[in-house]
């Protein structure tokens, strides 16, 4: 770590701290709203709370560990020799995959809400959804236990470049590629689920135009659906951008500050902006207090109209 000056370490810590505080506020406020507003007292709210918890987990771990490493300046904290160092990588990467899995579950939840509205409350009860969220979070953590193996560890500031990096060994590079493939596969699956739901909504709109003359009802439903898909698209782009930014620059760049931005800062930003996007796209819903916490009107109408054909 002697390659980095005290001033450079302070700059890195300042950037990490600033973005982390922003992320803690955005995700913390979003989590508070999901647990206090009646609109989110359902399966959808549980899934939202779940990915917000994963975001908070990642931000807290990243902020704490980066501060420790850059403050103590001990080379052993950036090497895979200690079990505790390798465990940090497991917790951090587990939060990343946990967040993606929760977003994937949210996409599936919305698909069922529109297509299987009459069975939605039965299939997605609060108790069942809570258990599913716990199981998928556990799966993400168990999957990342390969980082406990010394040659597959995920380390911070390895090589004094202020970045999170898989071990440079042969097995470490294999783990890095597998993590990248799994991340992209989950994000693509989430996007495909949203696209299928969009096709169902388009079909629903066509049915509504044929069977109703109340244009105001259609416009209200359309506004909510457009809001939902804008949020889904932005979240998908956010995660795919982070996956690309994290993996590709390591093959093209050598400057430590560019690598710092493309890895540590990119991971922090994606978790922080996730909470902000939730706030922005749900600000109108959050301000209202007369929502029914268990029903989804557009989906119910969709199912009823299909039966009447």
From TrEMBL:
<dbReference type="InterPro" id="IPR019430">
    <property type="entry name" value="7TM_GPCR_serpentine_rcpt_Srx"/>
</dbReference>
<dbReference type="Pfam" id="PF10328">
    <property type="entry name" value="7TM_GPCR_Srx"/>
</dbReference>
<feature type="transmembrane region" description="Helical">
    <location>
        <begin position="12"/>
        <end position="32"/>
    </location>
</feature>
<feature type="transmembrane region" description="Helical">
    <location>
        <begin position="44"/>
        <end position="70"/>
    </location>
</feature>
<feature type="transmembrane region" description="Helical">
    <location>
        <begin position="129"/>
        <end position="149"/>
    </location>
</feature>
<keyword id="KW-0472">Membrane</keyword>
<feature type="transmembrane region" description="Helical">
    <location>
        <begin position="180"/>
        <end position="202"/>
    </location>
</feature>
<feature type="transmembrane region" description="Helical">
    <location>
        <begin position="259"/>
        <end position="281"/>
    </location>
</feature>
<keyword id="KW-1133">Transmembrane helix</keyword>
<dbReference type="InterPro" id="IPR017452">
    <property type="entry name" value="GPCR_Rhodpsn_7TM"/>
</dbReference>
<feature type="transmembrane region" description="Helical">
    <location>
        <begin position="235"/>
        <end position="253"/>
    </location>
</feature>
<keyword id="KW-0812">Transmembrane</keyword>
<dbReference type="GO" id="GO:0016020">
    <property type="term" value="C:membrane"/>
</dbReference>
<protein>
    <submittedName>
        <fullName>G_PROTEIN_RECEP_F1_2 domain-containing protein</fullName>
    </submittedName>
</protein>
<feature type="domain" description="G-protein coupled receptors family 1 profile">
    <location>
        <begin position="26"/>
        <end position="143"/>
    </location>
</feature>
<feature type="transmembrane region" description="Helical">
    <location>
        <begin position="90"/>
        <end position="117"/>
    </location>
</feature>
